[in-house]
Amino acid sequence: MAPRESRPWVLGIETSCDETAAAVVAADRRILAQAVYSQLGEHAPYGGVVPEIAARAHAERLDRLIARVLTEAGVTPAELDAVAVTAGPGLVGGLLVGVVTATAVATVHRLPLVAVNHLEAHALTARLTHGIEFPYLLLLVSGGHTQLLWVEGVGCYHRLGATIDDAVGEAFDKVAKMLGLGYPGGPAVERMAEDGDPTAFALPRPLVGQEHCQFSFSGLKTAVRQAILRLGPRAADPGIQANLCASFQQAVADVLVDRTRRALQRVRGEGRALGSLVVAGGVAANRTLRAALEVLAGEEGVQLVLPPFDLCGDNAAMVAWCAIERLQAGLATAAVPRVRARWPLDPAAEPLPGAGAKA
Ligand code: KG4
Ligand code: ZN
Questions:
Q1: How many CB atoms lie under 10 A from the CB of residue 155?
Q2: What are the phi and psi torsion angles at 346 (to 5°)?
Q3: Where in the chain is the domain with CATH 3.30.420.40?
Q4: Is residue 183 lining ligand 1, measured as CB closer than 6 Å?
Q5: What is the per-residue pLDDT for 358?
Q6: Cα radius of gyration rounded to whole Å, the chain
Q7: pLDDT at 350
């Protein structure tokens, strides 16, 4: 019999983008089992995620993944306390597959169903992995989002800044596409940059030094495009590509560090007790960024919390954990989840000027 403090045990399901994932997590922060099926191979020929292909791939895999994690965890559905599913933001087709499947499992086994906000799941991952206390400053960097959030508690998020155009992961993906490095772009650009000189190309650092905490990456992406056009056929040279990738990656790290420093100063200026600086999302796997944030944290005297590599990108352990936090805080709603393409964590935040801004 499991100790009481390990309850609730939650099955998490994640299908909001191109990762199909399931996990079983206990309230004592143990991941009893988790599995992620990445659809990379299916989307690679198109250079980006194709929503219809994603939805179909989720539908084909999800049942088996759920069965697998339950077996690995040694848990029967009847022993679970709840089922959690990402209900947004994300691609509606994929979200529907997850929500329909989760509803079926919950109904058959008479379990509560918890609808999870994907961004909140990323935001609370550091409490699963490191058990850190509220409040903290969160830098969320993924394929669809680039935000600085002040995290006060479960369900209590204040957006200090966000991108006014492209998300940072999107910029990595687009640069990789321009250079023919394949999808997803982040890991490909990072690999290419290993042998490159980060000072070889003088690229812009958009919004660096500004009073506010917003981000912008489209100008940087355009500068890379212009550099490629100027290079002509030489842009295919691996040495030059390495230099361009290293220069781009350095520019991104410089922008993220500057904007995060600004947010830290703002939080301090408002007299708030600064706990930790937490990073989350797929781009948090980037080693140059991790190293640059280590330096920033040292200079600013804050504790830096970086997720382990397997929990940077999309996964279902974070979804199950988010539901555990909501259940424990009495904030899990019983209603049948409605899927939401957009679902901002801080609905009170000012709308952003860029039409492409992801909230
Ligand atoms: O969080 P995530 O898995 O999915 C979203 O919710 O968007 O993030 C995926 C993004 C992609 O844009 C991918 O290129 C980027 O994270 N990424 C990276 C790295 N690994 C993944 N970007 C830079 N460096 C990496 N090592
Ligand atoms: Zn994500």
A1: 12
A2: -125, 85
A3: 4-126+311-349, 134-309
A4: no
A5: 41
A6: 20
A7: 72
Whether the bond between 351 and the residue before it is cis, its omega within 30 degrees of 0, is no
Distance in Å, CA 289 to ligand 1 centroid? 12
Pocket test for ligand 1, best of 179, 283, 343 (most atoms within 8 A of CB): 283
Domain 134-309: top CATH class: alpha beta
Q: Which amino acid is at 287?
A: R
Is the domain 4-126+311-349 a CATH 3.30.420.40 member? yes
* Residue-wise burial string across 28-60, b where 16 or more C-beta atoms lie within 10 A, e elsewhere: eeebbbbbbbebeeebeeebebbeebbbbbbbe
Q: Where are the beta strands (DSSP E) in 57-112?
A: 82-88
Alpha-carbon span 314 to 310, nearest angstrom? 9
Q: Ligand 1: does its nearest atom lie under 6 Å from the Cβ of 125?
A: no
Residue 126: which of 305, 281, 301, 282 has the closest Cα? 305
The pLDDT assigned to 44 comes to 83
Q: Distance between CA 356 and CA 29 in Å, rounded?
A: 36
Which protein residue has the closest C-alpha to ligand 1 atom 18? 186
Distance of CA 215 to the CA centre of its chain: 16
Strand 113-117 relative to strand 136-141: parallel, antiparallel, unpaired?
Answer: unpaired
Q: Which helix (H) or strand (E) holds 35?
A: strand 31-38
Q: CA-CA distances (angstroms) from residue 54 to 62, 169, 180?
A: 12, 18, 22
Nearest CA to ligand 1 atom 16: 282
List of the chain residues with pLDDT < 70? 1-4, 334, 352-359
